[in-house]
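Batch job 17 of 40 flagged for manual review because the log was empty.
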Amino acid sequence: MAHEETFETVAGCKIRIMRGGKGEPLLFLHGASGASRWLPFMDMLAERYDVIVPEHPGFGASDTPEWLDTVGDLAYFYLDVIDHLGLDKVHLVGTSIGGWIAAELATRSCEKIRSLTLVAPAGITVHGVRKGDMFMWSPEELAQNLFHNQEIARAMPQPANEEELLVVLKNRLMTAKLGWSPRFHNPHLKKWLHRIAVPTLIIWGDDDKLIPTAYGPAYRDLIPASSLEIIPECGHLPHVEKAQEFTSKVVDFLQGAA
């Protein structure tokens, strides 16, 4: 499905946005690898929804503003993005660090949010369950550990030129700034997840080596009106590795939340 790419300036920060489809607005917040390409699952969702995929400040072709220090900063920024784009009753979907941003946003305000979908989100800790440490993995180990299906891991595109390599390094640097210490969580987030007042779906792969599946029940128990779906034979990126199953679960949930 065709999509367009634009740049919008919000709160003095220029960000790149991909957008395609028609229907109710669906705002997708990407993970640490960025949002450089329109992916198959976006096409699938765009058959029913107006899919909006911004690159976070500090990632890809978006600006890196001086004010960006924490995931909480991005949560407030995306509240401004929602206002700037004139969105209302938004289906908010976030994966990994984007799921963390989405959860932080929803604790601050659900006024314009219709539903929340968190895909293997960072943001909390579970006692006795260690996360993987992507900062300690080589690029090859990272690809292997993100997927259950190693054929997909081997087929993942690598930077083809210096420009693409610089984007990878930029994304990695900002991910480190946001998630280095403490490692990919906000010690205070657990206290406020009860404020999320919209239907919430949590999706996890059963073979997630970065943020183990045990984090799924922990998030579910902290968010009222939430449900958990575990996708079998799947790693940290269900929207990529199991795009069809992921999309079906999300669409079923969104139709129920409408």
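Reviewer: the log was empty due to a logging misconfiguration, but the result itself is present. The mean pLDDT is 96. Unflagging and moving on to job 18.
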